[in-house]
Amino acid sequence: MFLPVAFLVLGSLRNSEGALTLQNYSDLSTGVIPTAFANSIEISVVTAVGGGLFGLLLAWSVILGGLPRFLRTALMTFSGVASNFAGVPLALAFIFTLGNVGFVTVLLQDFGFDIRDTGFRLTSKLGVELVYMYFQFPLMVLIIAPALEGLRREWREAAENMGATPAQYWRHVALPILTPSILGTMILLFGNSFGAQATAFQLTGGTMNIVTLVISSQIRGDVLHNPGLGYALAMGMVAIMGASIGLYSVLQRRAERWLRG
Amino acid sequence: MSTATGAPFGPLGVMRSWLRLRSGPRRRGFGSPIAWVIFLIGAIYFLVPLWATFLHSIKTRPDPLLAYRQVFADPKFLGGLGYSFVVGVLTIVISLLIIVPTAYWVRLKVPRLRPVVEFVTLMPFVVPPVVLAFGLIRIYGGGSPITLASTDFGLNVLLVGAYVILSFPYMYRAVDTGLAAIDVRTLTEAAQSLGSGWTRILWRVIFPNLRTALLSGAFLTLAIVIGEYTIAQILARNEAFGPYLSLLGRNQPYQPASVSLISFALTWLAMGAIAFLGRGSRSRVQVAGAR
Question: Residue B238 — φ and ψ, nearest 5°?
């Protein structure tokens, strides 16, 4: 695990002749690369927060919302399957749904509404975000469910006995307890989306300008015409991921300390 | 122990059925409308793409099942699925054998190290799959002391190794959440006072108590491995399911839809089987408790 990273660090500091240089890093600010990073981050934040919130609501609805028990079992099993339905098959499914001749596209056309008139493209950022949500929700559901199940009934009863409304219970008891789990899981979702490559590759044919696609085409055919720049790009990704994980541990420690206090 | 927790009669049993009656109607009711709305939105979002894929897969004329026939006649299809499933199971077993003892030990003996272990298990997020595969290829490729990337077997080892690393964050989080929910210390001391060694404690006490957590971790891992495309593709494991389907998706009109659906159905079966096994043993416990 650490060996590949060390190797990348060394590789990123060499130019094509093998001499030590920092040029690769300054080259990161050239060409398509800054936009690639911006796009990747934007997509990841949107899908992590959006997917996280909706996933939390979904988990809440089946675990605490009083829906029949079989729906909960169905959702949990489905979530396991749906998070598996990422990558290539997922991209294909959405092409069949919202692509140019997709089911929903055609259906809406029959009602006289052309979805492409709104500027929506499956290969656009919004399109990719919509597709990514498909594996973000289920992941959130799967990971947050044990935490929701861990909310003891006694806590709510205690709150109710003291005259708390459900809103007050959530605001002052349940959410603070859940906060570390929620934040932690959202970071997982961010990473999940930031590192995603296959879905976007299949969806856009590799043309979308996000970091993972730039790296993978670099591995395949040195499109950046500089092996060192590929390493630097990889290091850039590592740095961003590292920063977000760092933020996560700070947030979580704070949340946990607060919880203990 | 089982007689104490599972007391069918006596005050405990009465109290339990009383609790069940009291809490039953409120918890098993029709549920709040908001919960229904959320659930329905989710269901629509989840199901429409599947339905659309299904419709697309039977568009072939005159024989609507043509795409399915072609796929099943293709040995690469079953081969790819089998290969990825075996890799997935190997990954889960290795990952569990590493993660459960580690998480248990850290929680019980060295809680100080918890942030460190957490950090290590989060490494796969710091190093995304595409970067990991890039690094692996460069390190174990030609000209290095350990050349694994030159043989098929070596590449398979690399693939499982990479997937084990990928599974760490999911597995660790699941296991750690599970451990948080049980009283590890009391269980361990109880087992120790009955004369159990560490292996026995882990295998007979900790593992069974973590069943739900382990299953959700295993769900995720299998999910990730079978759907995985990036690493398999970079390590040239073209027989794996991801690369196979990707190629198909670019070259064929209707077959990809049917393969997507078949893979979905098969995974559903696998998950259903795992969930069923887990629920079977859990409900046995619950039944013993209720009667």
Answer: -70, -15
- At the second CATH level, the architecture of A30-260 is Orthogonal Bundle (1.10)
Instruction: Give me the domains of chain B, ranges plus CATH numbers.
Output: 12-57 (no CATH), 68-290 (1.10.3720.10)
- List, as ranges, residues 29-68 from B with C-beta within 8 Å of A: 29-32, 34-36, 38-39, 42, 45-46, 48-53, 55-56
| Bigger pLDDT: B51 vs B226 | B51
Structure tokens at A176: 């603070």
What is d(CA B255, CA B183) in angstroms, rounded to the nearest whole number? 51
- How far away is chain B from the Cα of A57, in angstroms, using its nearest Cα? 7
Least confident of A128-142, B11-25, B182-196: B11-25
Q: Which residues does A145 contact at the CB level (< 8 Å), separation at least 6?
A: A59, A63, A76, B216
Residue with tokens 């069918």: B8
Q: Using the beta-carbon criterion (under 8 Å), do B177 and A146 form an inter-chain contact?
A: yes
Please compute the mean of the pLDDT values over residues A152-156 and round it to a whole number: 80
What is the ipTM for the molecules in this complex?
A: 0.79
Contact status, residue A125 vs residue A40, Cβ threshold 8 Å: no
Q: Tell me which chain B residues have a C-beta less than 8 angstroms from the C-beta of A212.
A: 128, 130, 230
**Rg of chain A (C-alpha set):** 22
